[in-house]
Design goal:
alpha/beta; Rossmann fold
């Protein structure tokens, strides 16, 4: 089976700044990856390469069997990639259903003189329903909570039934209940669509769904570790990644991390 993505010796440079150095990463079909690391380590840049939004400065990137630089990304790749970015801001005052439909057109608002087919409307409503937010379809975007907005954007990415789903810090800024609703939705999605490959960028292991299969850690533009989640999300590796003495625990399919503080009087 063709991997969802393969990065081989990838480097990325912007002006005089080397952002990525020698990244080797393979996302297999149906695998659900978490990509973690401190701010500025290059996580979002990796996601932009996987989403065919940028090309590498060196090395090769293959996405869904097609090499960047040798494929028409507009007609071949983008229809197969769902990209969820928390910074997405729809134009105008659209309804939730209209926002999800823009996932089919790849625009911030529905194009003039474009009318969705009944099948496309049904697909948009199904995407919302699958994330537990079907009743939000007629509501205005401005009336939604941050947690509801994140799930709407995931529905927008899913409406075209992509083969690869990319999530850039989907839980950032959410309160605890909203985060848990989002994690539940991602776990349900993995159970319904086990063939869907995904990469989720985060700073926090607490945000990772129990359905996460693999993980990668980045620091200063370099991949520190990658592989099965249980092998990578360890106290030792996460401590190295974040330059902090951490204790990682795993219970009921979820991870948590806390700083190990020295007891008073100890030196």
């Amino acid at each position: 089976m063709i991997p969802a993505a393969v990065l081989s010796h990838v480097g990325f440079r912007r002006d005089e700044t080397q952002i990525l150095r020698g990244i080797d990463l393979t996302v297999g079909a149906g695998e659900r990856w978490a990509l973690l690391g401190p701010n500025g380590c290059g996580k979002t840049t990796v996601l932009s390469l996987l989403g065919a939004l940028q090309h590498p400065s060196s090395g090769t990137v293959d996405v869904l069997g097609h090499r960047l630089g040798r494929v028409d990304i507009f007609s071949v790749l983008w229809p197969q990639i769902g990209h969820v970015q928390g910074r997405h801001r729809p134009s105008g005052r659209p309804t939730v259903e209209q926002i999800v439909l823009t996932g089919l057109t790849g625009t911030n608002s529905l194009p003039l003189r474009w009318e969705p087919t009944p099948e496309q409307v049904a697909a948009a409503r199904e995407a919302l329903s699958s994330l537990g937010i079907g009743p939000l379809a007629p509501r205005n975007w401005t009336h939604l909570s941050n947690g509801e907005r994140r799930r709407v954007l995931i529905a927008r990415a899913l409406v075209k039934e992509p083969a690869l789903l990319l999530l850039d810090e989907p839980a950032a800024g959410l309160d605890l209940p909203a985060r848990e609703h989002l994690v539940d939705a991602l776990e349900d999605l993995a159970l319904r669509r086990p063939e869907l490959s995904s990469v989720l960028v985060s700073h926090h292991v607490e945000e990772l769904p129990a359905t996460t299969t693999h993980a990668a850690l980045m620091k200063d533009g370099v991949l520190l570790a990658s592989g099965p989640a249980a092998d990578v999300l360890t106290s030792s590796l996460l401590s190295d990644c974040f330059d902090l003495d951490l204790q990682v625990t795993y219970a009921d399919g979820r991870w948590s991390a806390r700083r190990v503080r020295q007891k008073p009087g100890k030196t």
